[in-house]
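How a chain folds remains the central question behind the approach discussed here. The record that follows shows the chain in one-letter code together with its fold in token form:
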Amino acid sequence: MADATDTAALTILMSGELNERQIAQIKAAAPAADVRYFSSRAELEGEIEQADIVAGSISPAGLAKAAQLKWVQSWAAGTNEILFPEMVKSPVTVTSCASNGAIPLAEHAVMLMLMLSRNAPKWLKNQGESKWERWYHPELSGLTCGIIGLGFSGADLARKLKAFDMRVIGTRRTPKPTPNVDEVFPLDRLHDLLAQSDFVVMTAPRTPESKGMLGEAEFRAMKPSAYYICFSRGGIADDAALLRALQEGWIAGAGLDAHSKEPLPSDSPFWTAPNTIITPHNGATTPGTRQRGVDIFVDNLRRFLAGTTLHNIVNKEAGY
């Protein structure tokens, strides 16, 4: 860890979608440091040999050249993309922007729940055809939402769902009472959660342990009237099992913002899966998310310079 006397010797390289005000905010946190902003990772890695700190992403080739790199601050809440084997083995500290997208992701989940349960795609189709057609649809009030992962996004979603008078249940690695959650299930009772839920929302990170945790048995445990929503990471649900669940009617539909492969290939069968809404991993793409990420980095930068513990340190072996 650095201390205040090292500030002038620090070189901080940044990339990502930052505006001038945010760049100035970061520079003000370390006024004696050499802070450089690049429009792309490739440009940043052209000077990475000089970097002590990187804010943004980094490739295996970039890490190999970063002889004096001490810390990487990811702009993402999930750091799967930079936890390649070389990074995991390296002594470089990795921190995330966990919590920065909790608000818009929870909003996105609520939007998908309303759109799916009310068949909003059909309204939009009918509007394009100037067709007047009405139907009965459910209310969220009184329904049950099962949240897999009660971290920042899951907790914010639970709070929002209580405003809709929903029953909220959830599961997490270490079950403990959670505000706005009526019951917290241990992971070995996942099937109980699935069987009781009208909506199953995946907010957990993708880790070696969570990858493929929802397969055929899990989707068959859900109600035929239930919907699956994922905004954290693709691959936690097995793609083949999820596709069969949608095509064969094991579940009522899905709202998918996160996908195993991104961008989602144009020939992916998920584009045309029944009762499925696809969004391009866009749920947290808001100015507020980026500003909260900058605030997290600025706070961590001050901590780094003071020699105190950083926030959101990633357990590189665990993956989050």
User: Anything to note?
Assistant: The chain has two domains: 4-99+287-306, 102-278. The radius of gyration is 22 Å. The CA atoms of residues 11 and 90 lie 19 Å apart.
